[in-house]
Amino acid sequence: MAQIPRSFRLLEELEKGEKGLGNSSCSYGLKDSDDLDMKEWNGTILGPPHTVHENRIYSLTIYCPNAYPNGPPLVKFESKINLPCVDSRGVVDISRLPALHPWKRDYTLEHVLVSIWRDMASPMNKKTPQPAEGTEFPPLDLATLAQR
Q1: CA-closest candidate to residue 23, choices 116, 101, 99
Q2: 14: nearest Cα among 48, 45, 51, 42
Q3: Which 3-state string (H, E, C) describes the chain?
Q4: Which of 65, 89, 128, 145 is deepest in the core (most CB within 10 A)?
Q5: Do you find a cis peptide bond into 69, omega within 30 degrees of 0?
Q6: CA–CA separation, 128 vs 138, rounded Å?
């Protein structure tokens, strides 16, 4: 079966994100509309109801390296959060999200954000104490991290 080229795939994801189609608990879009390579994205996750995250809005940065969608994007929380899949810099370890491991080419940015949202709502994490609302992780350049 023929694979859709990276740019076409990302254009489809951008269109879906801009139109607000899909899961209403998450949103995403390009950080800069002039980014022709479509590498840098912003994401938002609304805290799941009936959890410590309820009524919180989490901001994320998403970086789609050239290997995407064959490989996962890099995802970093800007808003501080306490989850097992998030390291001390705010970077999400995709391999710690069972729904995304192993990574499959069919997974999209929406899959990633919804998987994080589900992890936030899981019985193991829904009552985990969280940092004060409004606190953020220090800045980190995901493009540099992707080159390592």
Answers
A1: 116
A2: 42
A3: CCCCCHHHHHHHHHHHHHHCCCCCCEEEEECCCCCCCCCEEEEEEECCCCCCCCCCEEEEEEECCCCCCCCCCEEEECECCCCCCECCCCEECHHHCHHHCCCCCCCCHHHHHHHHHHHHHCCCCCCCCCCCCCCECCCCCHHHHHCC
A4: 65
A5: yes
A6: 22
- Nearest Cα to Cα of residue 25 among 52, 40, 44, 1: 44
Look at residue 45 and tell me whether its pLDDT is greater than 70.
yes
pLDDT tens string 90-109: 999 999 999 999 999 999 99
Nearest to 117, CA basis, from 35, 44, 20, 37: 44
Mean pLDDT for 116-143 is 95
Provide the residue type at 123 as one letter.
P
* Tokens 């992707």 sit on residue: 146
Structure tokens at 5: 């080229």
Contact criterion met (CB below 8 Å) for 126 and 50: yes
List pLDDT tens digits, range 122-135.
999 999 999 999 99
